[in-house]
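Worked example 2:
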Amino acid sequence: MNSQQLSARLNQVADFIIVYGPQGRIRLADIGSDHAYLPCYLGLKGALQYAVAGEVVQGPYQSALAEVHNQALEKLIQVRMGDGLDVIKDQDKINCVSICGMGGSLICDILTNGRERLDPDHTLFLQANIGEAGLRKWLVQHHYQIIDEAIVEDHHRLYEMLVARPSQEDIQLTEAEYLFGPINLQQTSPLLFKKWRREATNLQRIYQSISQANQRENEKMRELEQTLALISNLIGE
């Protein structure tokens, strides 16, 4: 992977940014940018007006600096070291935020701690490695509407991406929509079923392990039973 050829995972995020970002004036903050491949890719395609690549760890920060320099994009992309959305300044006028490759709970923490730095009219592009249901619950609780989702297979792993915008409406989702994604359920791609067949196998293994150990984790077992029932209803097994 590099700035000219993204992974399938980041390529889907880039496509979402191009489609749902404000045309001709995308001002992106890519949080946890690592090598800054995503903003550099968008910059090389002429899709950006401006971008900030944020990193909290020294090594990835230096890698991002080097990549932006190697692609001669210093005038378009600013690399900054800081915690989460703290890298955003008012004068940046950021209208798109991408946070990818982290756990859902960490993404929620980043958004919670830095909400005051977000423009009222902004779009979120999020890819959580785990905890997608919790991320969707955070978005609904904080008055965001999920406007698109996708599942991508990348090196035999399945990743979910979603796009969300602030909404004045009272958004409500079912437990199935929190778990699988409201747009995913509408699209029902083959990867949705592939992902949740895998998840069902893992959850059944955990359930059996708890049962055989005679552990008094009734609440955990009930949660697993409810989740497995939702998955069974989805995949028809």
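The chain is about 45% helix and 20% strand. The two ends are 37 Å apart (CA to CA).
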